Each structure stands twice: as structure tokens, then as C-alpha cells.
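The pair is quoted verbatim below.
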Amino acid sequence: MLVKLSNRIEKIVLTTTKDDENHNQQESRLEEIRDSLLKRKTELIIKYNSGLHDREIRFSTGWIVKIGRGLDYFKPPESREKLCIGFHDLDLRPCYATTIDIFHSKSTKIRK
């Protein structure tokens, strides 16, 4: 969403845990996201941290997003066989319960 609304984001650092059961699929999907961001001149850096509970995304603009559930917080479409509202537009799709914290690095003691 931020990449869509701003042309100032040059780099995104995603910190997540490694999915030991489906790591190849995880890598493949993150690589697809990385490739699509590069088309918008935004670099995606992926870091793995096995001790991490919340997922963290840091933008080159200083904004930090922490997502308690991780990146997969959208519920699947009502029907995978036919088109429905939210099938292609995630703004219209229901979400699982989660907490999303958004803050700026200026408001933290540790700045990376």
C-alpha cells in the first residue's frame, strides 16, 4: 500500500521467520514480491530471525510496520472457483484478527 501511495520508498527491509516446512515456497513467493518491487525501483531486503515473534517491515523513509500475525493476514476469497469481491483487490477482502503497529524510527531508542 505504501509503495502504491509514495514514490519515495527506495528500500524495504522485511524481517521474518523462516518457514522450515515450506521454505522453498516461501522463498519463491518473496522473490516474486522482490521482482515486482524492483519494477517500481524499490529494493526488498529479506532478513530471517528465528527468535522473532512479530514480523517487521522497515521502509527507507523511516517508517516501521510490525504485524503480529505476519504477512498473511487476509482471509482467502469466498470462492476460489469464481470471481468475487476481494478476489483481486485485497482492500475488499476480510482479514484475520491481528495487531499492526506503525511508527517512525525517530520515536524509537534503537535506530537501524
Q: What stands out?
A: The two ends are 23 Å apart (CA to CA). The helical segments are 2-5, 23-38.
